[in-house]
UniProtKB/TrEMBL annotation:
Lineage of origin: Eukaryota, Fungi, Dikarya, Ascomycota, Saccharomycotina
SMART domains named among the record's database cross-references: EFG_C
Purpose of the protein: Mitochondrial GTPase that mediates the disassembly of ribosomes from messenger RNA at the termination of mitochondrial protein biosynthesis. Not involved in the GTP-dependent ribosomal translocation step during translation elongation.
Protein's recorded name: Ribosome-releasing factor 2, mitochondrial
One Pfam family in the UniProt entry: GTP_EFTU_D2
Domain Tr-type G span(s) in chain numbering: 46-340
Family: Belongs to the TRAFAC class translation factor GTPase superfamily. Classic translation factor GTPase family. EF-G/EF-2 subfamily.
The organism's place on the tree of life at top rank: Eukaryota
Biological process (GO), any one: ribosome disassembly
An example Gene Ontology molecular-function term: GTP binding
Keyword line: GTP-binding, Mitochondrion, Nucleotide-binding, Protein biosynthesis
Main location: mitochondrion
């Protein structure tokens, strides 16, 4: 059956060119009628797609993005990851290692639409890059390696996208590789990621006459009833622009088998969609022929089902061999939402206060809370604050220092119209910022634009005052930002949560003369990457740089030393420890007289601690609570903590009575607290973690012109409160990781034993790998996977070969300190077959034995 089929296909192909060769997708023809410079900025919002490419490391994200740029006509030759010449991986470290480190944002025109693509990194150390990209995206493409199937990082990014309510398309890449498993990958998508599959296209193979291997040649477009095939012979130097198309809608002598495959897949697709959308069923009932249901009805239903997150369209291809990328680009346009159809962003009413819990994610439940905020959502424009269409709200999601272009701040505009050379309010601190030119990135080429309208992603230049996560408010009708009402001027699009850095290195300038350059270079890196953190050890005078993982810090070191040519001595990568207190302090009051004796700056406060994430504590529900930027610390202001004249002024919408803004006053106290907690605790002077500073009262003179004395008194009060505790009222906290180890049955015992004894792991679960599901209801997902339609699949032969025995996953929690170097250990314990993934799950209090070990270290 197998060979006969392949033979039929070949002979069919042989006669094909004489029947009806069609050339589609030729970028030159698409480009000829489209003037990028003039037409791109004019594309209406409904034709914009803001999408991310997310996946496990090496699945082929950069390779696929590069093809998209090429087919759109933006670049004239395809760059190659392995040769280090792709558009999106432009950092030296990316080229050298062949991995993506920074998400690159490129704009790709396609079929009168504009796809803003963010190519994100796959390595777990750069998870923050993925999170911050997902925050500004309306949809995403998950790429899978057809050999590896669903991998650890695939599950993680899928879950993150799902939590943010982002519709997804799955693309099974590397179909050309030996061992590629199409059917297996589809089942894993359903069973492990917990979704329904909509097979938009299915693979098409041709048997090689000499080797008898099945060669991946193209796809059957199930929706359009067409066979698309690509010429991939290396000698012909094809770049995949030419696609041969054969219609399968009408039966001929030659196309019977392919048509049957298409029909079976269509039946499965229509039945799956029919459960969601009755139009499809109605259309089918008219003729009772699956091939007759119109492609536009199927497409509409597919779009609704994807945007409604009912199911996931699945496509396949081989980006490296230039097969299947154009259909993927079509699917992005056809099935992923425009900014008008995407989830509106969550808005918090004030940068200062508001329940911390609202800032965690963007779930349905949380969206309902919008009604209580002084912000209304307009579905037509994504998000409009107080229905003033001139009010412009943008979110800065990325700041980079480009080697040639200087500082670039990437923003997503959510409402109104951002204009160049205008003034915007940074709602984080109330600062008014004059911005310079506005750009969009056509591929890697910046193009200056006259404005950036709602739904767009672009670049602000000319300022270094914006950080990742800042909300920028402006008014497109009036240049005067002072006229923007106070509430709107402090509204914040959901800030981007920064994961805690769990590894650190010490850094010192090689000579005194090198200090300046080191500090300014570090500032550049910190602005670019908020998941890096710099602290100072007062005792040793060293700078401590913390990051998400060993690779993250290695790459930062390379950027400092190699790219920025800084002379510095960088220590060994170590785990980051913290301290916390185990008992509440007394109330402490600190006052500082104002320099002109007109009054005093005074604060009364106490410090306590808690366990677990700040968002999950009762404190997070308090109205006047704020999560501090670092270390899971909270500050809570008593309801009547502010002096009476300030409370009055806050209640009425009149002129603010003080020379200093309220944001600056609160900001000063928060800086005082942050500084004092950084100095560290009593055990090893490590920064304090999981503490809550409760401000009972504060005051300042009505005429105050500076907040410095308030900052200072707050800092002193926190320090005095902490130092009043007995020495045994503090302990060390160490990072705890959630670990999943994947092994063959025969290695289960030895790996579990090693985890428990040498790694101090607590095992929570051992299960079959096939039973994994992140989709919430594992049983449901498994049932779905079993009944999912899989087309004729010659790759099934590889599964049988590779499935020699059962595979298990061991799940547990282990201290990060004991997991260092685990990759080589697991490899040696399993003869190279085992692997593992881990993610931070919190800080745990160390036992006294461990405190001793850590201190000795
Ligand atoms: N055989 C084959 N190799 C591919 C395909 N797509 C990508 N590759 C190769 O896979 C490797 C990784 O590709 P990338 O595009 O860098 O993958 P990535 O997902 O961007 O990787 P990170 O950004 O580091 O996570 C490179 O060696 C590519 O040449 C494909 O379709 N077939």
């Amino acid at each position: 059956m197998f060979i006969r089929k392949a033979g039929l296909v070949r002979s069919f192909l042989g006669s094909f060119s004489s029947i009806s060769t069609q050339l589609r997708y030729a970028s030159s023809s698409a480009a000829s009628s489209f003037d990028y410079q003039a037409d791109l900025p004019k594309i209406p919002i409904e034709n914009i797609r803001n999408i991310g490419i997310i996946a496990h490391i090496d699945a082929g994200k950069t390779t696929t993005t590069e093809r998209m740029l090429f087919y759109s006509g933006l670049i004239s030759r395809i760059g190659n990851v392995d040769e280090g010449d792709t558009v999106t991986d432009y950092l030296t470290e990316e080229k050298d290692r062949g991995i993506t480190i920074q998400s690159a944002a490129v704009t790709v025109p396609w079929n009168r639409h504009k796809i803003n693509v963010l190519d994100t990194p796959g390595h777990a150390d750069f998870a923050f890059e993925v999170i911050r990209s997902l925050r500004v995206l309306d949809g995403a493409v998950t790429i899978l390696d057809a050999v590896a199937g669903v991998e650890a990082q695939t599950e993680k990014v899928w879950r993150q996208a799902k939590d943010l309510g982002i519709p997804l398309i799955a693309y099974i890449n590397k179909m050309d590789r030996e061992g590629a498993g199409y059917g297996r990958s589809v089942r894993e998508i359903v069973g492990r990621l917990g979704t329904r599959a909509l097979l938009v296209n299915i693979p098409y193979f041709v048997e090689d006459p000499i080797t008898k291997q099945m060669i991946f040649k193209g796809v059957i477009d199930v929706v359009e009833r067409k066979l698309l095939s690509w010429e991939t012979s290396d000698r012909s130097n094809e770049d995949g622009r030419k696609v041969s198309v054969i219609d399968l809608d009408l039966e001929t002598d030659q196309n019977a088998e392919l048509r049957k495959e298409c029909k079976d897949a269509r039946q499965a697709l229509i039945e799956q969609l029919g459960d969601y959308d009755e139009h499809v069923i109605d259309s089918f009932l008219e003729t009772e022929d699956y091939m007759q249901v119109s492609s536009s009805i199927i497409k509409d239903a597919l779009r609704r089902a994807t945007i409604g997150r009912y199911a996931t369209p699945i496509l396949c291809g081989s980006s490296f061999k230039n097969i299947g990328v154009q259909p993927l680009m079509d699917a992005i346009i056809d099935y992923l939402p425009s900014p008008l159809e995407a989830n509106p962003p969550e808005v918090v009413s004030s940068p200062l206060f508001g329940s911390i819990k609202h800032r965690k994610g963007r779930t349905q439940e949380k969206q309902d809370d919008h009604s209580t905020l002084p912000v209304s959502m307009d579905p037509q424009l994504g998000c409009v604050i107080n229905n003033d269409k001139h009010l412009t709200a943008s979110l800065a999601f990325k700041v980079i220092s480009h080697p040639n272009r200087g500082l670039m701040t990437f923003v997503r505009v959510y409402s109104g119209k951002l204009q160049p050379n205008s003034t915007v309010i940074n709602t984080r601190n109330g600062d008014k910022i004059k911005i310079g030119k506005l750009l969009i990135m056509n591929g890697d080429i910046p193009q200056e634009v006259k404005s950036l309208t709602a739904g767009n992603i672009g670049v602000i230049t000319g300022t270094d005052e914006i950080s990742t996560g800042d909300t920028l408010i402006s008014h497109s009708a009036s240049k005067n930002v002072n006229k923007i009402p106070k509430r709107e001027a402090s509204a914040r699009l959901l800030p981007i949560a920064i994961p805690p850095p769990v590894f650190s290195v010490s850094i010192e300038p090689t000579t005194v003369a090198d200090r300046r350059k080191l500090e300014s270079s570090l500032q550049v890196l910190l602005r670019e990457d908020p998941s890096l953190r710099l602290t100072f050890d007062d005792e040793s005078g060293q700078m401590i740089l913390s990051g998400m993982g060993e690779l993250h810090l290695e790459i930062t070191r390379d950027r400092l030393i190699t790219d920025m040519k800084v002379n510095a001595d960088i220590g060994k990568v170590r785990v980051t420890y913290k301290e916390t207190i185990t008992q509440q302090t007394e109330h402490v009051t600190k006052s500082i007289a104002s320099p002109d004796n007109s009054g005093s700056f005074s604060v009364t406060l106490s410090v306590d601690s808690f366990e677990g994430p700040a968002e999950d504590t009762d404190l997070a529900d308090k109205e006047n609570a704020q999560l501090l930027e670092y270390d899971n610390n909270i500050v809570v202001f008593d309801k009547h903590a502010a002096p009476e004249f300030i409370r009055k002024a806050l209640n009425i919408d009149s002129e603010w009575p003080l020379p200093i803004s309220y944001e600056h006053i609160i900001g000063a106290m928060i800086s005082g607290i942050t500084g004092a907690l950084q100095v560290g605790g009593q055990v090893a002077r490590l920064p304090l973690h999981s503490v809550v500073v409760k401000i009972k009262k504060w005051s300042l003179p009505v005429e105050a012109t500076s907040t410095a004395p308030l900052l200072q008194s707050t800092r002193l009060a926190v320090r005095e409160a902490l130092e009043s505790l007995p020495p045994n009222a503090s302990t060390i906290l160490e990072p705890l990781m959630k670990v999943s180890v994947f092994v063959n049955d025969e290695d289960l015992g030895v790996v579990t034993q090693d985890l428990m004894s040498a790694r101090n792991a607590k095992i929570t679960d051992i299960d079959e790998q096939d039973n994994l599901s992140t989709g919430g209801d594992a049983l449901w997902a498994r049932g779905q996977a079993e009944k999912t339609y899989i087309p004729y699949d010659p790759t099934l032969q590889y599964i049988k070969q590779s499935q020699s025995g059962g595979k298990k996953v061991i799940k547990g929690e282990a201290p990060l300190r004991d997991m260092i170097g685990y990759l080589s250990k697991i490899r040696s314990l399993t003869k190279g077959s085992g692997f593992y993934s881990m993610e931070y799950c919190g800080m745990q209090r160390a036992t006294s034995d461990r405190v001793k070990q850590i201190l000795d270290e």
